[in-house]
Amino acid sequence: MVFLPALNASLNASSAVLLVAGYVLIRRGHRRAHHWAMVSAFCCSALFLVGYLWFHFTHGIVAYRGAGWHRVLYFAILIPHSTLAAVIVPLAILTLIHGFRGRFDKHRRIARWTLPLWLFVSVTGVIVYFMLFA
Ligand code: HEM
After folding, report:
1. Does ligand 1 lie within 6 Å of residue 121's CB atom?
2. Whose CA is nearest to atom 38 of ligand 1?
3. Averaged over 107-123, what is the pLDDT?
4. Partner of 22 for a Cys bridge, out of 37, 90, 92, 97, CB 3.0 to 4.6 A?
5. pLDDT per residue over 25-34, tens digit each?
6. Other CB atoms within 10 Å distance of the CB of residue 53
7. What is the pLDDT of residue 61?
């Protein structure tokens, strides 16, 4: 089942693209399209989480084999990536809820944190994949 990490990385990359698209769309005033871009980004990240947990339940932890500064770089990316990945779950849900309920003041305030953090987690997820599996 080696395809699963590649699929998971693609889901992360898709989230990143959808988040950027969603941001551009709301800046241009396309509320409906922003809504669907962000809901799709959330679905990609949720599917990623399922695939990630599935892979680790079936394969255990995959240790990084690199050494020297590559290893330092790997952990310098992995540690904030994993920490923020846990933070982003409640943040993304709260941002969506405020959006769905039309509480756009609160939505906007929290979304300004959610968006960059989520983007960071998605992009570093792809980097971690290439460092581990490529
Ligand atoms: C977790 C997913 C979402 C994220 C990360 C997100 C992100 C953002 C961001 C960063 C802004 C502020 C843009 C700016 O700087 O002007 C914004 C505004 C907005 N979002 Fe979202 N959004 C999400 C989901 C949604 C959903 C589901 C809806 C609709 C149901 C929605 C509706 C809006 C609207 C109407 C605004 C404009 C608010 C205003 O100008 O006062 N968003 N969103």
Report:
1. no
2. 104
3. 98
4. 37
5. 999 999 999 9
6. 10
7. 87
Q: From CA 117, how far away is CA 84, in angstroms rounded?
A: 7
Exposure string (b/e) for 2-19, b if CB count within 10 Å is 16 or more? eeebeebbbbbbbbbebb
| pLDDT-above-70 percentage for the chain | 99
Please report the pLDDT score of residue 91 as a whole number: 98
List pLDDT tens digits, range 3-48. 899 999 999 999 999 999 999 999 999 999 999 999 999 999 999 9
Which pair of structure tokens corresponds to residue 7? Answer: 């699929």
The answer to whether the CB of 94 falls within 8 A of the CB of 65 is: no
Spatial neighbors of 113 by CB under 8 A, at least 6 apart, are 91
- 2 secondary structure, DSSP code: T
pTM greater than 0.90: yes
Q: Domain total for the chain?
A: 1
Distance 113 CA to ligand 1 centre (A): 12
Domain that holds residue 89: 3-133
How far is ligand 1, taken at its centre, from the CA of residue 1, in Å? 37
